[in-house]
Amino acid sequence: MSVTRNLVTFVRRWLGERLPMDDIEHFVAKQAGKPLPPHVSWFHTFGSLSLFLLGNQIVTGILLMVYYRPTPERAYESVHFISTKAAFGWFIRGLHAWGSTLMIIMLLLHVARTFLMAAYKKPRELTWVIGVLLFGAVVTFGFTGYLLPWTQVSYWGTTIGTEVAGSVPLVGPFAKRLLLGGDAVSGETLSRFYVVHVIVLPWVVVFLTAVHIVLMRTQGLATMDPVGKEVIPEGKSVIPFWPHHVLKEMVVFSVFLAIMATMVILLPQELGAKADPLVTPAAIKPEWYILPGYQFLKYFPKMLGLAVSTIPPLLVLLLPFLDRNPERRARKRPVCITVGVMAMAATVLLGIAGHFSERSVRIFGRAYQFDHFGIPHRSPEAAR
Ligand code: HEM
Fold first, then answer.
1. Is the peptide bond before 243 cis (omega within 30 degrees of 0)?
2. CA of 54, closest atom in ligand 1
3. Cβ count within 10 A of residue 186
4. What is the pLDDT, as a whole number, of residue 384?
């Protein structure tokens, strides 16, 4: 014990002769001691869980890079090697794949929490705007990572995704060529997606996350008081960040890690067949988080659809500047909450319609064929 104490004293003195340790300690103590508003609950751990999952993606992603090879000849084989031969490769790959899905779910919950508690209002507009950019970057992470295993689904899923980008008025054809590095998904596309996935996006996301967290720590978490009347929390009712809230975060991190490990073991990631540019599989669908947008585009002619589909993300980005009501409590913001909840419900319904479209499904013993628009029709099989 005294050896440890002596070592700590030595390191502190050594650093103190080289760095302003008193200032650093004062800063850390100030951050740790920051009081949180009394309404802070388990719902406020969604943001730190997103951070935890980002850490998981970075660590497992670096480990996967050891064996992964970004060429059409070796990509599939290298992922197969990771899944079947590399020590704990299947586990690391599972953590990365499930981690990406869970991160998007967690971000959606985090956005829903900050929206319902109106934490985006003045002075936190920039925190929200950076958050929306972060969400876009995380979805792009998923989109670029999807191609890397070079399977049939990833090859054709990417073909559909880049076609959607290509149909954007004016800039579309250029964007499509830039993404593909040619006219179709090829080795060029794979190396572009790889660079974006392992170099560009990690820096963008780490930088934006750092700004997001610094803003949040500087302004403190939002209280439920109206804009301009926020009372800085003090007194007995406040929750200290350290150790109370940090302990809560440690509990959710541990539970989450256990859930993730269980999912990796019980629901392992299948690899599927290797990409074959000459064989188009039936009814290829993009990943679930792109599905609502993809389905939405089906209901409009191409040009109009893309013009209409840029409006909802823009409204979300500009929400803090559009919603001028100073109130934060949900019951005092009926219009905003109604519109928001309806938008969330519509997104879920579009996702469901996208999932079932062009599939036949049995519901309560009856067979239905879902058409291109996700509308069910009694299939002839049911009539028999
Ligand atoms: C990688 C992505 C993200 C990470 C790691 C992250 C992390 C965090 C953390 C740790 C907090 C404080 C605790 C909490 O409120 O849960 C926070 C607060 C906040 N985040 Fe995020 N966030 C991310 C994305 C987003 C997105 C997509 C949005 C909205 C579109 C957003 C909006 C906000 C707002 C408005 C606050 C302030 C909350 C308040 O004052 O009560 N964040 N974020």
1. yes
2. 1
3. 15
4. 46
For tokens 């049911």, what's the residue? 382
For residue 57, the CA-to-ligand 1 centroid distance in Å is 18
Domain borders along the chain are 35-297
User: Which residue in this structure is represented by tokens 């995380």?
Assistant: 138
pLDDT digits (tens, 9 = 90+) for 34-88: 888 888 999 999 999 999 999 999 999 999 999 999 999 999 999 999 999 999 9
The answer to whether 254 and 45 are in contact (CB under 8 A) is no
Closest by alpha carbon to 308, among 316, 298, 297? 297
Please name the fold of domain 35-297.
Cytochrome Bc1 Complex; Chain C (1.20.810)
Confidence label for 344 from pLDDT (cuts 50, 70 and 90): very high
Q: Which two tokens stand for residue 102?
A: 């869970």
Nearest to residue 118, comparing CAs of 337, 361, 374, 311? 337
- The model's pLDDT over 294-323, given as tens digits with 9 standing for 90+, comes to 898 888 877 777 778 889 999 999 999 999
- The answer, yes or no, to whether residue 283 has pLDDT greater than 80, is no
Q: State in Å: Cα 219 to ligand 1 middle.
A: 12
Residue 119 alpha carbon to ligand 1 centre in Å: 9
| pTM of the shown model | 0.93
103, 114, 221: which to mutate for ligand 1, most atoms within 8 A of CB?
Answer: 114
